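User: Predict Diguanylate cyclase (GGDEF)-like protein's structure from this.
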Amino acid sequence: MIAPVPRTAHLTRVLAGATALGCAGVLLVPAWRSGAVVVASVLSVLLVAVGTAVHRPRGAAWPLLGLMLALWGAGGLLVQDRGHLDAWSTGLVWAGQAVAAGVVAHVGRSAARRSERSAGDRLDLVVTATVLALVAAQLVAVVVAGRGDAGGVAVATVDVVLLGVLVRFTLTRRGLSTSSRLLLVGALLTIAYDLTSALHGRRLALPGEPAQVLGVSCVLVLGLAALHPTMTRAFAAETFARGRRPSGALLGMLPLVLVPAATWGVARVSGVPGLPGWTVPVTGAVVAGLCLLRAAAALRSSEHLAEHDPLTDLANRRGLERAYDERDPDVPHSLLLIDLDEFKQVNDTHGHDVGDALLREVRDRLTGAAAPSGLVARLGGDEFVVLVPTADAEPVAQRVLNHLEAPVVVDHLVLRVGASVGLADDESPDGGLLPLAGLLTHADVAMYAAKGAGGGRVAPFHPDLRSAVAHRYTLGGEIRQLLAGRAPEVGHLEIHYQPLVDLRSGRAVGAEALVRWRHPLRGLLSPGEFLELVNDNDLDSTLDTVVLDDVLDQVARWRDQGRAVLPVSVNLTPDSLREEDLAARVLASLARAGVPAPLLHLEITEHERLHEDGPASRTLGLLHEAGVHVHLDDYGAGWTSLDYLRRFPVRLLKLDRSVVSTVTGDGAPLVAGVQAMAAALDLDVLAEGVETPGQRDRLLELGIRYGQGYLFSRPLPAAEYAEGFLPPADADGAGAPPAGRPRAAVSAAPSAPAAG
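Assistant:
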């Protein structure tokens, strides 16, 4: 939808047209000039007052501009009344000039709020100052020769300085608003008026003189600038920060080279004495030389930008290629390819600003780890490389891991990111040197091997790794096809169900849904063999949706079979929890399947941080109100437990298997503490990974009521789980039998735990 144009914008256009017509009439009819000065003096002040009242700009610039116009108008009215300049009219005009200097100072302060000036910016200022100095000196020379008065020369000099500021601003800024353009036009008209009056030896034009047309038009245009809605941005810091591209700014400076020649030409043609003849060519040569330096600075800046990453200022791919080509061929070199673990989660959870700050901190740490012999570059995203002599490669790689282990604090957030590092040498199998592309490929293969081994480690390249990486790429493509549902030849997903049991009675009270991939060639794949690929391909949310729908359809079938259905827990990834419409989609899936909300439990993982201002709290709150239970999975393995308990409507804590495995030893006090806290918060506790009767008995002694693990049952296909744990609802002694009984056809003895 196109936003309506404010009324003041239309009014500005109408008045601009009226101003143009009026000025044309004043130029053609001398008798109108004195009256036009009176009208313009009053109307310009009113326009600034109305614009300021309606648009309410920040800062003092517009009130100062209105005061300047009022002082100038008062001086002009006195001249019209008395027919000549006197001390009062001159004083009022000089007071207005002082206020104008205040406006220019305000502009300077706004411009100073920009980022630090570059070398090119400083050279631009030097060029502008040199040209202004030449023009000012020429004017002074004219006065010394007897052509003009001191006051007129002073005013003209100030105007020339202002003209330089305007030229510099206009040539180096882009996207100026309508109000800013009107201000520039008004200022140029003011300068033209001042210079015209100075040439006649006066500060103001006398009644009836043609120069009054310039005076009328300049104050009216300045007033119109205040009336336009964009006046609120005219003096804003962001206006001065919106610069042109370096090439545009450089071309904009070239006309200044012509100023010395123009000054010399005017002096020769007019016959007005001025500076000695040699000064103008010398100044012109200086200006030309400075412009050449400016061009060289722009070229260096362009070369730097072409070979450096704009976010981190590290070398980019092109800069890395240059460094690789220029390395000493007699010194073996190695390449470290560094991929940040869990950077995507940080970026998605806390936003790109936090992610960018994290990347800059990683840059500093990598630079420190690579010093003094290594070159650090960023290829893009969260991938960095270090080019280093082979003799230093392993120590540098270890320092990289050590430097990245420490937490990073960004905006009071404590972030933890590790790294997977691939290491490759530049020597090719035939004894020659690898090109950079081949070296990057070897390092990439090694890096994926490091990630596949769990991350947080260095993996040297070996030819045998190629098959492993090829296998990974193949599976990645197949998992995309699998979740798109368009390629039955890549197999299908199966949901297995592991019972959650009452530790005292051994009866099942629910189940956790665990996904498996039935692959046509590789058999049944556990989550550990493909979930990382799902994450790498940004398919976490898609997998969650597929599993949730499959589970709800299965629960609906069990209900149709007349079984005593128990609640089923489904894991949700942070990607799903960050989606605004998750609650609506889950409730729609429940309604579609005809499954009551209390039969669905959702598990969120303690390892992943979720932004407090994000949708997760609202989503889980809505689902909780609808009857869906929320479990906190892997409790004790992360670092945000208490925060999660405060923010989310958690009903049950699932104690991580790493804690449960120590319950018969020194981990018992920790388990007892968790149970005491949960009891105080009216939460249940379930122990994951219970594998021995000793662990079960100790958990019972510590007050833990529920458990899950191979002691009771392995994860089972849907049919086996239903046969063993979901009897008909009207059967004698209705309810699930104790886990591990012969009816379930599963062993209660410990076995290798299933992943996920």
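The CA atoms of residues 250 and 295 lie 7 Å apart.
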